[in-house]
């Protein structure tokens, strides 16, 4: 297989990424692969050194002398094309790496990406003043960039399970393979070191045979939390303890000053940056290794220390779960005090056999295993790429893009909904290629996406609470409770749903329509709103509007009252207002304030007429009794009713006579017609 590794840092740079690439290149070549490294240099022209292609770049002197290149490298395409690559492996995130991604798209080459750095732990470079708002935005941006890069190829390699879990949290859906970086463990075989060279190094550092050496190897930067180890050594009662710091970085001067200010004296020894071939000799001088960093994706120096037979003192972190067994291959700590105590105990005890236990822990981190695992990832990436779909058509539909996909193995095109955010993250365009596993992943969510679209349409025509929408998605769209909840939560996050706004708007509307606070509370609770939210909204309602609502309701009631006395109308209004949830005080005040411009005599007559129609079929005595009771129920007095009853009965008799006369005339006319016939 012909492999192109694209990286923004390579030899002669010294760092963990470079070490990983050098180890991988050698391991892959041992397996028979041809490996090209595309990197950069501080020059203005392209430089080819055998299988190393260096692109033009500028040196960043303030950043350890690293080089930065433009992602636009048109003249380099010829060199890449001649390499006839089978797979591209991107190792970084900057200019060269971006160019590698573009090459993969333009030349239709499978892409693998290794996520070496937990970028969320490096926000202090963007936010030196530690501003909360900037910190939040920086972390969100780094998560988004990580997600975009992770979803840009056929496979992602994570050096540890911790790294994989972080990528999954970011939203990476590309297959993630956990492949710990391997080492040439033979370099850290202490029996192979030159004793004279080791002795001279110890003398040059001012170390004595009786010294207890705690070693730190790494970049001197804030995320490494070196100050915790420094404090632990300074506050130790062991007069022989020494901290040997190997490495350089942006905070090197800061740590020198810290050691001086805290009176470290000769307890802290800064060796500075050393050549790669010299590093094993520093491990050979130490009794143990210590680091307080929790920003590692794997922690290569931990493995190097163990390979050298040194127990590791480390902060509790998932990266160490497979490396440190408490009391056997190392020790955990949470703060400087705990580290001080454990170092004291360590140097007071005998550790026979511990070195061999440490070395045994590293047996799965060989260069050979590393190369074999990465080679398997390449093979899977190539196979996945062969089953990709071509994007033939695209159409935006609300929050989604509707894709028409085609591949040679299928006769019919495939229709696929994909969220708009994912569409842009994956940089999909016409004629772009989607891996089969990507398509398969989205096919599982098509019912979910269609339910989402239906919910959006539903909300455009009707206000709903979160509870109502969730219930509708389960009953009408067939989603299970978990998926319905996921839609609702996402709608809330996008401000498509707002229970607070719903409650406030509905409360104002219902109050305007004459509903009481009690009725509004009941309706809001019925709509599935939380009791605490409902009470909050009710408490914010203007108390003066309660009277206005009651008055509006009362005026509506009066429209249906025509046969009652004015006194009874007020009583009836008060009672009905109380039934609707208005307080007795508001109800009574509303009833008293009603302006009833009516003639009680006319109302009484209306009541008598109604009663007469209702009871016309009864005998006269029974009819009088029923009419009297009816009118009394409408709020009139017995005297008022008795006074008008004679007139009512007289009118009823006239109506009866007129009706009978009309029937007789009708019969005479019918008889006359019959005789004529």
UniProtKB/TrEMBL annotation:
Domain of life the protein comes from: Bacteria
Domain Glycosyltransferase subfamily 4-like N-terminal: from-to ranges: 14-187
Q: Which SUPFAM superfamilies match?
A: UDP-Glycosyltransferase/glycogen phosphorylase (SSF53756)
**UniProt signal peptide:** none
Q: Which InterPro entries match?
A: Glyco_trans_1, Glyco_trans_4-like_N, Glycosyltransferase_grp1, WH-like_DNA-bd_sf
A GO term, aspect molecular function:
glycosyltransferase activity
- A Pfam short name: Glycos_transf_1
Residues in Glycosyl transferase family domain copies: 199-350
User: What is the protein's name according to its record?
Assistant: Uncharacterized protein
**Organism of this sequence:** Faecalibaculum rodentium
């Amino acid at each position: 297989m012909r492999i192109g590794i694209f990286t923004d840092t390579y030899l002669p740079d010294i760092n963990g990424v470079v070490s990983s690439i050098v180890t991988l290149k050698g391991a892959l070549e041992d397996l028979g692969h041809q490996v090209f490294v595309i990197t950069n240099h501080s020059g203005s022209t392209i430089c080819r050194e055998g299988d190393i292609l260096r692109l033009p770049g500028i040196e960043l002197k303030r950043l350890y002398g690293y080089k930065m290149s433009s992602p636009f490298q048109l003249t380099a395409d010829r060199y890449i094309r001649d390499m006839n690559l089978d797979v591209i492996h991107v190792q970084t995130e900057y200019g060269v790496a971006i160019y590698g991604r573009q090459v993969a798209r333009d030349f239709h080459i499978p892409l693998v990406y290794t996520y070496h750095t937990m970028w969320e732990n490096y926000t202090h470079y963007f936010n030196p003043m530690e501003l909360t708002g900037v910190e939040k935005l920086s972390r969100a941006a780094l998560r988004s960039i990580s997600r975009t890069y992770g979803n840009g190829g056929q496979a992602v390699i994570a050096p540890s399970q911790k790294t994989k879990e972080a990528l999954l949290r970011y939203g990476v859906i590309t297959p993630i393979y956990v492949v710990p970086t391997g080492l040439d463990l033979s370099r850290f075989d202490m029996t192979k070191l030159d004793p004279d060279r080791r002795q001279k190094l110890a003398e040059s550092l001012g170390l004595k045979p009786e010294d207890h050496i705690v070693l730190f190897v790494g970049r001197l930067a804030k995320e490494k939390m070196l100050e915790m180890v420094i404090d632990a050594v300074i506050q130790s009662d062991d007069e022989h303890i020494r901290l040997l710091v190997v490495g350089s970085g942006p905070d090197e001067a800061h740590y020198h000053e810290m050691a001086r200010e805290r009176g470290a004296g000769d307890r802290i020894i800064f060796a500075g940056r050393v050549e790669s071939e010299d590093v094993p000799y520093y491990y050979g001088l130490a009794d143990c290794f210590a680091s307080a960093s929790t920003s590692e994706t794997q922690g290569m120096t931990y493995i190097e220390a163990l390979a050298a037979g040194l127990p590791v003192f480390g902060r509790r972190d998932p990266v160490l779960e497979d490396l440190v067994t408490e009391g056997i291959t190392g020790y955990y700590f949470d703060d400087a005090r705990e580290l001080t105590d454990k170092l004291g105990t360590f140097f007071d005890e005998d550790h026979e056999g511990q070195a061999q236990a440490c070395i045994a822990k590293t047996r799965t981190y060989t260069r050979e295993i590393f190369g074999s695992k990465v080679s398997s990832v390449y093979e899977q990436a190539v196979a996945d790429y062969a089953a990709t779909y071509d994007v033939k058509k695209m159409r935006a539909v609300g929050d989604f893009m509707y894709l028409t996909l085609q591949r040679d193995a299928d006769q019919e095109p495939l229709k696929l909904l994909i969220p708009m955010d994912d569409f842009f993250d994956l940089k999909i365009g016409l004629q772009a290629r989607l891996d089969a596993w990507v398509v398969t992943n989205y096919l599982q969510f098509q019912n979910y996406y269609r339910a989402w679209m239906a919910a959006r349409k539903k909300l455009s025509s009707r206000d709903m609470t979160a509870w109502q929408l969730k219930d509708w998605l389960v009953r009408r769209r067939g989603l299970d409770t978990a998926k319905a909840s996921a839609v609702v939560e996402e709608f809330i996050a996008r401000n498509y749903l707002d229970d607070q706004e719903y409650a406030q708007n509905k409360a104002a509307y219902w109050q305007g329509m004459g509903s009481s606070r009690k009725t509004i509370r009941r309706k809001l609770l019925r709509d599935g709103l939380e009791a605490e939210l409902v009470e909050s909204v009710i408490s914010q309602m203007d108390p003066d509007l309660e009277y206005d609502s009651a008055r509006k309701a009362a005026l509506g009631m009066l429209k249906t009252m025509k046969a009652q006395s004015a006194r009874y109308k007020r009583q009836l209004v008060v009672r009905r207002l109380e039934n609707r949830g208005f307080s007795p005080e508001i109800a009574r005040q509303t009833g008293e304030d009603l302006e009833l411009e009516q003639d009680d005599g006319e109302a009484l007559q209306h009541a008598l007429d109604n009663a007469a129609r209702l009871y016309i079929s009864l005998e006269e005595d029974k009819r009088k009794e029923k009419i009297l009771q009816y009118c009394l129920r409408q709020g009139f007095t017995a005297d008022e009713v008795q006074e008008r009853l004679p007139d009512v009965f007289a009118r009823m008799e006239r109506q009866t006579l007129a009706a009978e006369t009309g029937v007789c005339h009708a019969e005479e006319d019918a008889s006359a017609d019959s005789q004529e016939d």
